[in-house]
Write a structure and sequence with these properties.
The structure holds two protein chains of two kinds. Chain A is α+β, with helices and mostly antiparallel strands. Chain A folds into three domains: about 45 residues, Uridine Diphospho-n-acetylenolpyruvylglucosamine Reductase, domain 2 (2-Layer Sandwich); about 110 residues, Uridine Diphospho-n-acetylenolpyruvylglucosamine Reductase, domain 3, CATH 3.30.465.10; about 110 residues, CO dehydrogenase flavoprotein, C-terminal domain (Enolase-like, domain 1, 2-Layer Sandwich), CATH 3.30.390. Chain A is built from eleven helices and 14 strands. In chain A, the strands form four sheets. In chain A, strands 4-5-10-6-7 form a five-stranded antiparallel beta sheet. A four-stranded antiparallel beta sheet of chain A has the order 11-12-13-14, with helices on both faces. A three-stranded parallel beta sheet of chain A has the order 1-3-2, with no helix packed on it. Chain B is α+β, with helices and mostly antiparallel strands. Chain B has a single domain, classed as Alpha-D-Glucose-1,6-Bisphosphate, Chain A, domain 4, CATH 3.30.530. Chain B is about 30% helix and about 50% strand. Chain B has four helices and seven strands. The N and C termini of chain B lie far apart (about 30 Å). The chains are: A alpha+beta, B alpha+beta. At the A-B interface, β9 of A face α3 and α4 of B. The complex binds flavin-adenine dinucleotide (FAD). Flavin-adenine dinucleotide binds next to β2, α2, α7 and β10 of chain A.
C-alpha cells in the first residue's frame, strides 16, 4: 500500500471542504470495509483519505420523522440498522436483509452511506432501498439535495454524486400497509456476496397487487427496476399463472452480465425463479 | 468473456481492410491508447489508459497479429499488463470483413480473460468498460470514414 494522508474532520461540512472534485485520489472513508479491499488489491491508490468517524453524532443516529418517514444518518452501521427495533417495525425487510449480508464483523463497521456510495452492483442494500423508494440527502459546497436511491447508481462504482458531494442521510418514506421482501441467492456460502438479489415492495388489496416496485441487483451494472414485471402484476390477482408470467417477463427483459458467480444464462434462470419466489413471499406475508 | 458485434462501414472491403491493418489508424480509434510502437508488421506495443469511476488503470499492451487472410480476416492476440497490479488481461480478437455491395460489415469477436487481482474486480467491469470503448471506437471509425453502424437503422 502506498503512503497517504489521513484526515479526521469533526464536522460533515469540514469533511466536504477537504474534498477536491478534480482529484479522484481523495476519498472519504466511513467504515472503510470496501475502500480497504480496493487498496489492498492495489486497485485504488489514495493520496488522502477523509475519515467520517468524528463528524457530528446526528449522522450516526436514526429514527422516525414527524412526517411519518424514517431517517437514517449516513454513518449508521449496518449492525445499528439490524438491531434498531423502530426501523424493524417500520420496514421489516431491512432486518431480514441484514441477517444474510456478509458477516457481523463487516456489519459492525460498514455504514449505510458507504453501502450506497460504493456503487458495486453486487450489494444487497441498494435494491432494497430502491424498492422502499428511499432517497439520500447529500451535502456539498453547493448545499444539499435529495436524490432517489433509484437514480444514484450509474454503473460499476459510478454514482451521480459529484467529487465533493457526500451522502449525509437516507430517508425512507412512510410504508403504510405495503409489504416488502428481499431474496438473496448465493452460489457459495449463504452469507456470500449475492449472485442475485430481488427486492419487492407492493400494496396488496386482498390477493390483488398494486403499485409494485421490483428491483433486481447483482446481474447488471446497477440495481435494475423491472417495469416489465410490474406491468404484469399491477392490478392483478396473484394467481400461479400471473406469477409465472411475471417470472417470464423478468427473464425476457433483464439483461444479465456473467461474473465469477455465474454465467449470463444461469443468472437469467435465477432471475426467473427468484422473481416468482419474491412475489409468492410477498403474497404469503402477513399484512 | 466474449464480446461480439458488427459495425457497418460505408466503404469497400479493401479500403476497410487496409485501415484495419494500419496500426496507427487503428490505435487512433481506440480511446486511451498512446506510445504505439511498431516492432514489425505483426507485433506492436502500446500503453492503454482507462478508468472505471474514480479508479484509473494503465496497461502495457502487446499485440501480435496471428492470422491474416487478405481482405477478409485479421486475428490478433492482445495481452495487457496493468501497472501496479498483479494480473493480466489476455484477449483474442477476430475480425471478419464481409463485403456488402459498396459497404463492408466488420464482424468481430473478442474473447477476454482476466487473471490475478484483476480477476477479482470482475468480468462485469470489463464488459461495461468494453462496451463503452466499443461505442467510442465505432464513433471514431465513423468520423474517420463516414461509417454507419448496422444497429442504428432508420426509425
Ligand atoms: C468480507 C466482505 C464481505 C462482504 N459481503 C457483502 C455482502 O454479502 N453483501 C453486500 O451487500 N455487501 C458486502 N460487502 C460490502 C460491504 O457492504 C461494503 O464494503 C460496505 O457497505 C461499505 O461501507 P463502508 O462504510 O465500509 O464504506 P467505505 O469502505 O468507507 O467506503 C466505500 C465507498 O463509499 C464512499 N463513501 C463512504 N461513505 C460515504 C458517504 N457518506 N458519502 C459519499 N461517499 C461515501 C467511499 O469514498 C468509498 O468510495 C462485503 C464486504 C466485505 C469486506
Amino acid at each position: 500500500m502506498n503512503a497517504f494522508e489521513l484526515e479526521m474532520p469533526d464536522s460533515l461540512k469540514a469533511a466536504v471542504a477537504l474534498l477536491d472534485p478534480e482529484d479522484p485520489t481523495i476519498r472519504v472513508m466511513s467504515g472503510g470495509t470496501a475502500l480497504m479491499l480496493m487498496m489492498k488489491t492495489d486497485v485504488f491508490h489514495p493520496t488522502r483519505l477523509i475519515s467520517l468517524r468524528r463528524i457530528e453524532e446526528t449522522w450516526s443516529q436514526m429514527g422516525p420523522m414527524p412526517d411519518g418517514s424514517f431517517r437514517i444518518g449516513a454513518m449508521c452501521t449496518l449492525s445499528q440498522m439490524e438491531h434498531n427495533d423502530a426501523l424493524a417495525a417500520f420496514a421489516p425487510v431491512i432486518r431480514q436483509t441484514m441477517y444474510l449480508l456478509s458477516n457481523v464483523r463487516v456489519r459492525n463497521v460498514a455504514t449505510v452511506g458507504g453501502a450506497l456510495a460504493h456503487g458495486d452492483p453486487h450489494m444487497d442494500l441498494p435494491p432494497v432501498l430502491v424498492a422502499l423508494d428511499a432517497e439520500v440527502v447529500t451535502e456539498s459546497p453547493e448545499g444539499s439535495r435529495r436524490i432517489p436511491v433509484a437514480e444514484l447508481h450509474l454503473g460499476y462504482y459510478e454514482t451521480v454524486l459529484r467529487g465533493d458531494e457526500l451522502i449525509r442521510e437516507v430517508i425512507i418514506p412512510p410504508q403504510q400497509d405495503r409489504r416488502a421482501s428481499y431474496l438473496k441467492c448465493t452460489t457459495r456460502a449463504v452469507k456470500d456476496w449475492p449472485a442475485l438479489g430481488v427486492a419487492l415492495s407492493a400494496d396488496l388489496d386482498g390477493d390483488s397487487m398494486r403499485d409494485a416496485r421490483l428491483v433486481i441487483g447483482s446481474v447488471g451494472e446497477r440495481p435494475l427496476r423491472v417495469s416489465e414485471v410490474e406491468a404484469v402484476v399491477n392490478g392483478q390477482q396473484m394467481t400461479e399463472r400471473v406469477i409465472r408470467d411475471a417470472g417470464e417477463a423478468a427473464a425476457a427483459s433483464v439483461e444479465t452480465i456473467p461474473d465469477e458467480l455465474g454465467s449470463a444464462a444461469y443468472k437469467t434462470q435465477l432471475v426467473r425463479v427468484h422473481v416468482e419466489r419474491a412475489l409468492r413471499a410477498v403474497v404469503n406475508q402477513n399484512a | 468473456m466474449k464480446l461480439t458485434g458488427q459495425i457497418r462501414a460505408n466503404a469497400p472491403r479493401e479500403r476497410v481492410f487496409a485501415a484495419m491493418r494500419d496500426a496507427e489508424f487503428f490505435a487512433s480509434c481506440v480511446q486511451g491508447v498512446s506510445d504505439l510502437k511498431e516492432i514489425d508488421d505483426r507485433n506492436y506495443t502500446a500503453v492503454l489508459k482507462t478508468k472505471v469511476a474514480y479508479i484509473r488503470f494503465s496497461f502495457d499492451v502487446e499485440v501480435t497479429v496471428t492470422r491474416i487472410e487478405e481482405p477478409v480476416l485479421i486475428e490478433a492476440q492482445v495481452t495487457g499488463t496493468p501497472a501496479g497490479i498483479v494480473g493480466r488481461l489476455t484477449s483474442t480478437a477476430t475480425t471478419e470483413l464481409i463485403a456488402d455491395g459498396d459497404e463492408t460489415i466488420i464482424d468481430y469477436v473478442i474473447d477476454s480473460h482476466l487473471t490475478g487481482r484483476l480477476g477479482s474486480i470482475g468480468q462485469p467491469v470489463l464488459k461495461s468498460k468494453a462496451r463503452e470503448m466499443e461505442r467510442e471506437f465505432t464513433k471514431r471509425l465513423r468520423e474517420a470514414f463516414a461509417l454507419e453502424s448496422t444497429g442504428g437503422g432508420a426509425q
